[in-house]
């Protein structure tokens, strides 16, 4: 099987992101796999998505590229992500063991992850229509790549299948991705 340079870069980015995973641990008891989530870390992932939406919408040219419907969709996704983060935090407390088979906490986490994936898709599609300076484009690309790294980490944590290719364009650690999106 031939692997393109872009696909190889995506695979390297995903493996780099997963190597930096600090928000969970796993245990297996018979056929049941459980994961312990660090709720603060998961909330940082969600906050990174919220920050990205706010940062990107504040840049010149982004709202124009998205159009009124696109801006409304990003704002709706941001609101849904904020709600998912609150629901997850309220249900989970400071840490929680989640059965990967059935759990309301997993559902809450998955809801937030779905919103992160939606934001990532919205901004990746918007980038093709951007008519901004190379500096602004580079900043948005860094944020998109940072969010892609976070989505890759979160998706890999639960071995969920995501739609689309969310591997970061630039290999980076979880800490770098969060810092790029203003979460410290």
Total of DSSP H or I helical runs spanning 4+ residues: 6
Give the averaged pLDDT, no decimals: 76
Overall, the morphology is elongated
Largest sheet: 3 strands, antiparallel
Oligomerization state: single chain
**Which H/E pattern describes the elements?**
HEEHHEHHH
Count of individual beta strands? 3
N- to C-terminal distance: 40 Å
Number of domains: 1
Radius of gyration: 16 Å
Helix content: 55-70%
- The neighbouring-strand order within the major sheet is 1-2-3
Which stretches are poorly predicted, pLDDT < 50 over at least 5 residues? 1-21, 160-165
What percent of residues are in strands?
5-15%
Structural write-up:
The chain is mainly alpha-helical and 184 residues long. The chain has one domain. The protein has 6 helices and 3 strands; from the N terminus they run αββααβααα. It has helices spanning 5-19, 39-58, 62-92, 104-127, 134-157, 174-180; strands spanning 24-29, 32-38, 95-99. Strands 1-2-3 form a 3-stranded antiparallel sheet.
Short overview:
The chain is mainly α and 184 residues long. The chain is built from six helices and three strands; from the N terminus they run H-E-E-H-H-E-H-H-H. The protein has one domain.
List keywords for this structure.
184 residues, mainly alpha, 3 strands, disordered N terminus
Write the layout of secondary structure elements.
Blueprint: H1 5-19, E1 24-29, E2 32-38, H2 39-58, H3 62-92, E3 95-99, H4 104-127, H5 134-157, H6 174-180
Antiparallel strand pairs: 1-2, 2-3
Helix pairs in contact: 1-5, 2-3, 2-4, 2-5, 3-4, 4-5, 5-6
